[in-house]
Design brief:
Radius of gyration: 23 Å
Helix content: 25-40%
Distance between the termini: 39 Å
Strand order of the largest sheet: 6-5-4-3-2-1-7-8
CATH topology of the largest domain: TIM Barrel
Order of helices and strands: EHHEHEHEHHEHEHHEEHHEHHE
Largest sheet: 8 strands, mixed
Shape: globular
């Protein structure tokens, strides 16, 4: 049985005023646009039967640039009053109390539960990684923000750590988080999400030791993360400003498998197919661990399927693995046509080890 969606990641604009060094938006976005409020309401209508507990209104653009973002936040809370709403902003726009943007910003805080200020590095390193951001513009933003009524909205500093800004963490804590009364400093380690990597190259042992000794409690994320830990295919949904539904917020260049502006019926069917695929992959991994004490074999099995090899070996040729590989083939056959083409139409079979 398909699990209901409990986590939503909804993009309402793909306009952005920055070109951050770690962002791939230029490679994946379509025509620049803000989602009309009418379409946003239609999207929520197709989601309202799901028990969404947490949501992010963000994506490949700066959320606050949407001219009706206060109405977007209000509408979301009207449909999902119990959902915990999160928004991230780059703080590179004016919010003077008497300005239209300033009034909109404060109105948004009435509906947002957690607001991330994205600040990575101090002065030169900040301007380098978040070009064309300017440090003095950030400081004007923070000065205008400080006296604002927060309406119960929790506000934190979200800091993406890389090898060139580790030395700035303490000064951001002292001069930004503490001075402007932000709830906490959240550290996110820049990562390569390939299956065989957990961190990008370049970190020295001294840097890693410094992070462990001084900032361990501020570092967010799950240690020893593996792909079966991912909840997206089971309970999450990521949609673009066009209404396209994608499987993961990290794989932003993937083909969509539904559109929430059109209908929720096909989406439910396609998500079910992806979930069946995820279950089959997890079953294979579990058997590999039981048979060999490790999970390396499952990576090879899936890569063989993706890149066109017709057979995969089992360490023991177990009947359990044969059955789960059959389930995998069945799950792949239920995927949308274009995704089947990408994976390949060959059948995945099992050979006992040493049969070559």
């Amino acid at each position: 049985m398909n699990k209901p969606i409990t986590y939503a990641y909804l993009e309402t604009t793909n306009y952005c005023n920055l070109q951050c060094s770690f962002c791939n938006r230029e490679e994946v976005i379509g025509a620049l646009q803000h989602m009309p409020l009418t379409k946003f309401k239609k999207m929520l209508e197709n989601l309202k039967h799901h028990p969404i507990r947490e949501a992010k209104l963000m994506g490949m653009g700066e959320p606050m640039l949407h001219p009706q973002f206060d109405e977007i936040c209000k509408t979301f809370k009207e449909v999902f009053p119990k959902a915990f709403l999160i928004v991230a902003t780059n703080c590179q726009y004016p919010i003077r109390p008497d300005s239209k943007m300033g009034k909109k910003f404060e109105e948004c805080m009435k509906y947002i539960d957690l607001l991330y200020f994205s600040i990575d590095g101090y002065k030169d390193s900040y301007e380098r990684d978040r070009a064309p951001a300017k440090w003095d513009k950030l400081m004007r933003f923070l000065e205008d923000f400080k006296p604002m009524e927060r309406h119960g909205c929790r506000v934190t500093c979200n800091y993406v750590v890389n090898t060139d800004n580790i030395q700035d963490i303490q000064i951001i804590k002292d001069e930004i988080v503490d001075v402007y009364d932000l709830e906490e400093l959240r550290l996110n380690i820049a990562q390569d999400w390939s299956e065989d990597k957990s961190m990008p190259g370049g970190y020295t042992l001294e840097q890693i030791d410094y992070l462990n000794k001084n900032w361990k409690n501020e570092i967010k994320g799950k240690s020893e993360w593996d792909f079966p830990d991912c909840f997206w295919v089971k309970e999450g949904i990521y949609t673009t400003v066009e209404g396209h539904v994608k499987m993961c917020c990290l794989n932003t260049g993937a083909d969509p498998f539904g559109n929430l502006f059109d209908s929720a019926s096909n989406l439910s069917s396609d998500r079910g197919a992806y979930r069946a695929l995820a279950r089959a992959v997890e079953d294979i991994r579990d058997i590999m661990v039981a048979d060999t004490g490790g999970s390396d074999g499952v990576v090879g099995a899936i890569k063989d399927k993706v890149f066109g090899k017709s057979e995969s070996k089992s360490p023991s040729g177990s009947s359990d693995l044969k059955r789960t590989l059959s389930n995998l083939n069945s799950a792949i056959s239920q995927l949308p046509g274009k995704m089947q083409t990408a994976i390949g139409s060959m059948e995945l079979t099992v050979k006992p080890a040493g049969s070559d």
